[in-house]
């Protein structure tokens, strides 16, 4: 493999690397003039370019391993494209919000670009070392982002909690990966899969390694019981960062989890099906039941995002060889739609926070439908999508995940997921109830900056469009998943 | 003509969406324009459904297949299609939906005063969901329309509900009850696909669902049944209904009772009967028994009400019980193949249940409008404060008499035929249940006559008992005023239908009998 070929296959990563430094440079030059607008523009351009590069690579049906560590395949490229778009949306929406809150705007956007780079690396990583490095890279950028509002106690708490939890999880992950290396003598996922398949005696050690890896990766995806950092961090972090952490970063966690489990541990499927099934049920119930009681919408979304992780995980629990309801395609379409829905829902809070001076209490939403009908309508669509009401994308994701569960004849799991859907509908509809049914407690409309409004409209349109033009997106998803299923599983 | 035939169902379903988008683009201050537009726009689907009814009667009778079928790929990789079609069962229900939508919009134009634009937008959207369910021949499409109808109704109850009746509680209860049923139905629908490889209702019915796995078949049957029974609502899943009905604005109650409840019964006949005939035959007696419990229990609870609207809401529980009894009898009859008279009784019960769907739609629709008439003037629905109104508001009295007598099944009015056919059919199949059910008819007569007619209209009118009268337009009045022109225009078409169909049910029966023959013969009956 020559240098040019490597450059081509790693184009998204290189684009992001250059963009990240360019953002810092541009910011140094123009900081005083425009409150970070140029820096944000550069960052968004870079991200969109990287997304285009990913699509371009995707269309070439790649399947190469670059430098023995990165699998440039359709599976990874799918997640890259989705994550880049998600981060770009976050940046566009946060320009106005961040301008008044922090002096270090260039660094903020640059860190988001670097976080996207970390996601890009980690979703392609096919090697234990790179997986660890990628996750740590993503974590470190995330810690800083979560604590970006210096002087805001809650932001600082968010960062320190995330950091302490992430550091421990990282250590456990590393321990698990070292066991895996000790058993097999290699760091390559596919080879590990082969070796574990052949050696029966490695079963128990493999299981221990799997559990540890699960703790290390599962915390990124906020799976119970590795979720304790998530509510406070999502709640306390600056809202754009919460939007990022609960979507793109979470998607990366699921991407790694899927690749590791399906490539390195296919022979342990009977074991991890049960473990992951139990985790999924716990995650759904804990997230949804706790979200019921929240008064602050941001905190409600934090718990809801834990609950959503439970549904998403069902796709991996029910993974199987059938083309249509193979589980992984459900996980991926769910995540893809979830990125638009949840980024939208969190970012809409920016407008509410601007108006209320930081509070996202449910009372701020009262009567929003009469004060700002457009925002209320958009929020209602996000809530209905999260609740899984057709024809939104939330329904499409739930449909595919549930279908996979049914396909594996996991009836109890399906029933528990259905019960959770009903519980969750209550608190999502509660937001709608306050927006549409209650009298306003606050005077005056809620203003959204132009960038934010654009992002919200794009997200709302996508929420409907993916649900209605489902075949187009499902073809893409099915292609992306075919290889990882066929190869390792 | 062929172009119209292939697109007419889609036009009926999606024109209201187009209408609501146009309403959304209108400025909120132009209330008159919005109202006029919505009413006129809703006439297009109404005319189309009338055309469909005529065209179907002239060209598609005895065709033994779905008419106006359109099948377009939606998610081809899993065989989800936009597959619509209509038969004798759906054609009259489409007309009923369009009629009640237009009347509801027309009536609301006078009485809805807050957030006018949103109301008319949502009302149009609501009709899309209902039309969609009645024409869907694909399970996923069916589910999508089923849920689409849920959301606007949730808003109608929550926003325009009467603040005294806890509308927010009623709205969320309505939504969660329906969702609780439908989410399990979705799982069962996926099961149908896994078993048959298709989401198409007609194809799946031909293949047979879970024929080799009786346990899955039974589970799927109950998942579907509970979803539909909640919507109907059948005892013991009926508790959302009195709250939702009482809280909803008048036109919302009309649509809720007139059409939304029918979605459940329609689902049972269209989906459950054709996909799970074996299980249905086995458990049909439970369905019939629940129907009978609903009839008697609903009637007794009605008798105990002092709130006029709540009374009529419970009377719906009772009247929907007839439908469940009829359908349950049809199902039980499936096990009696060959027995003398079973086929005839099954067809009778089928006709009775579907007639009751239509008749209950116009009768209870009219009754809820009539509640609106008195409530807009007195601002109370407490039956204890009225009395002797017959002399003061004779037109209202006469209209209520027609609707009330139709509701209690007086021969010559619409309700009679539905009850007659249902009980005639049920007697031949589940005689004991039918006998118990007849008690309901007696109690129905009691609550209509004693509760409604007597406490509203008979006796001496005493002006001091209730003094807070206004006109229907909100101006002060010294006493009750009679029905205004717009109320007459709203109600009289329904009354005329009650009389015509009471004297001459044949045209309506023609459609339903066609459906009964087709559906039962597809079950090799």
Question: Mind explaining what this structure looks like?
Answer:
The complex is a heterodimer of chains A (489) and B (525). Chain A is an all-alpha fold and 489 residues long. Chain A has 2 domains: 1-159 and 224-249; 269-489, no CATH class. Chain A contains 21 helices and 2 strands. Chain A has helices at 3-9, 11-34, 37-59, 74-99, 105-124, 128-146, 153-184, 189-198, 203-218, 229-236, 239-246, 248-264, 269-292, 297-317, 328-356, 368-371, 373-387, 393-407, 411-436, 450-468, 470-488, and strands at 63-66, 70-73. A two-stranded antiparallel sheet of chain A has the order 1-2. In chain A, β1 and β2 (70-73) form a beta hairpin. In chain A, α4 (74-99) runs antiparallel to α5 (105-124) and α20 (450-468) packs across α21. The model of chain A has no long low-confidence stretch (mean pLDDT 92). Chain B has a domain at 290-525. The radius of gyration of chain B is 22 Å and the shape is globular. Helices cover 75% and strands 3% of the residues of chain B. In chain B, a hairpin with a 4-residue loop joins β1 (67-75) and β2. Chain B has a two-stranded antiparallel sheet with strand order 1-2. Chain B is mainly α and 525 residues long. At the A-B interface, α18, α19 and α21 of A face β1, α5, α6 and α7 of B.
Quick gist of this model?
Chain A is 78% helix and 2% strand.
| Number of helices, where a helix is a run of at least 4 consecutive DSSP H or I residues of chain A | 21
Order the strands across the largest sheet of chain A as they lie in space. Answer: 1-2
* Side-by-side strand order of the widest sheet of chain B: 1-2
What's the average pLDDT of chain B? 93
Indicate the low-confidence ranges of chain A by residue numbers.
Answer: none
Structural class of chain A, by secondary structure, is mainly alpha
Task: Using the alpha-carbon principal axes, give the shape of chain A.
Answer: globular
Domains of chain A (count): 2
% residues in beta strands of chain A:
under 5%
**Sheet with the most strands, sense and barrel status of chain A:** 2 strands, antiparallel
Question: How many individual β-strands of chain A?
Answer: 2
- Low-confidence spans of chain B: none
The DSSP helix count of chain B reads: 20
Sum up the overall morphology of chain B in one term: globular
Number of strands of chain B: 2
Biggest interface pair, counts: A-B, 34 and 37 residues
Instruction: Give the fraction of residues assigned to helices of chain B.
Output: over 70%
- For the record, give the distance between the C-alpha atoms at the N and C termini of chain A, rounded to a whole number: 27 Å
What share of the residues of chain B does DSSP label as strand, in percent? under 5%
Distance between the termini of chain B: 35 Å
Radius of gyration of chain A: 21 Å
